Amino acid sequence: MALPHHPTAPYAAQNDIYTTLIPAPPRIVVPPPPLDNLALPSLELPTPLNSQTHPPPQITSNTVLDWSYERRREAQAILPNLYLGPMTVAKNEAWLQAAGITMVLGIRQKAPGLAGKLMDSAMARIRALGIEAETLDLLNNTELIKRFPECTSKINGHLIAQQGQGKVFLFCESGNERAAGVAAAYLMEGWEGVDYIRAMQVVQAQRFCVNFDDGMKRLLQGYWDVVCARRAVAGNGMTGGSGSGFGGVGHKQKRRLERDEDDDHEMGQDDLERFGGRSFAPFASD
């Protein structure tokens, strides 16, 4: 196969195919959930960390096989006490009452406009029904990673106040993007061993139209690292009961450097061991 032509210096000849594109991290692939002996997705959850706020260790139903396009306009139960859907469902007073929703949490863009006014009017009608209504305003998706603990705190605080009888409806404009990310983060925080891949699998199995794009996947991957670090710190007895971050540290421990100065001097030898046997070069002298 002929190599593509790239302009090179007069004294160099191209050896192999190469690219001038900026390096990009590998894509995060969310595999389909495993199937049980009835060909239904098997997505049982482990024991929850807090039995006061979280349901029994299984999800209510699996809807992948019977999903239809029209269901994107409806809300689905991600957990027995947590629903996910679009903003149009938040305006459906009959559904809110029939489903027994006791709290609505809306995720929206922090910008003046028609969408914000529509959500404000929907929230006013919800409060008139005696349902608690909260909103989370974001400048962009990347702001979510520092607001995930706030969402979890709002949901858990409400469920504890309702003594296990509450139900929360989580929504954004489409019900497929930011609110889906919040639902996945909630699973990661509430069940030990449910990582970002497993959390996205559960959410997508219940609401098949959710859209975890590359940005949201990396956001959840980064937040999973935060969740793991927080649990490790709490396990070492360093936290003072804070559930939304690394605050409440009772005592500080000095960090020990993994390398001393002698190790730093040996890095040159490490590089030789790592790269010394490689013979590939994109160019060769004429």
From TrEMBL:
<feature type="compositionally biased region" description="Basic and acidic residues">
    <location>
        <begin position="266"/>
        <end position="276"/>
    </location>
</feature>
<dbReference type="InterPro" id="IPR052449">
    <property type="entry name" value="STYX-Interacting_Phosphatase"/>
</dbReference>
<comment type="similarity">
    <text>Belongs to the protein-tyrosine phosphatase family. Non-receptor class subfamily.</text>
</comment>
<dbReference type="Pfam" id="PF00782">
    <property type="entry name" value="DSPc"/>
</dbReference>
<dbReference type="GO" id="GO:0005654">
    <property type="term" value="C:nucleoplasm"/>
</dbReference>
<protein>
    <recommendedName>
        <fullName>Tyrosine-protein phosphatase domain-containing protein</fullName>
    </recommendedName>
</protein>
<dbReference type="GO" id="GO:0140096">
    <property type="term" value="F:catalytic activity, acting on a protein"/>
</dbReference>
<dbReference type="InterPro" id="IPR020422">
    <property type="entry name" value="TYR_PHOSPHATASE_DUAL_dom"/>
</dbReference>
<feature type="region of interest" description="Disordered">
    <location>
        <begin position="243"/>
        <end position="286"/>
    </location>
</feature>
<dbReference type="GO" id="GO:0070372">
    <property type="term" value="P:regulation of ERK1 and ERK2 cascade"/>
</dbReference>
<dbReference type="GO" id="GO:0062026">
    <property type="term" value="P:negative regulation of SCF-dependent proteasomal ubiquitin-dependent catabolic process"/>
</dbReference>
<dbReference type="InterPro" id="IPR000340">
    <property type="entry name" value="Dual-sp_phosphatase_cat-dom"/>
</dbReference>
<dbReference type="GO" id="GO:1990444">
    <property type="term" value="F:F-box domain binding"/>
</dbReference>
<dbReference type="GO" id="GO:0005737">
    <property type="term" value="C:cytoplasm"/>
</dbReference>
<feature type="domain" description="Tyrosine-protein phosphatase">
    <location>
        <begin position="74"/>
        <end position="226"/>
    </location>
</feature>
<dbReference type="InterPro" id="IPR029021">
    <property type="entry name" value="Prot-tyrosine_phosphatase-like"/>
</dbReference>
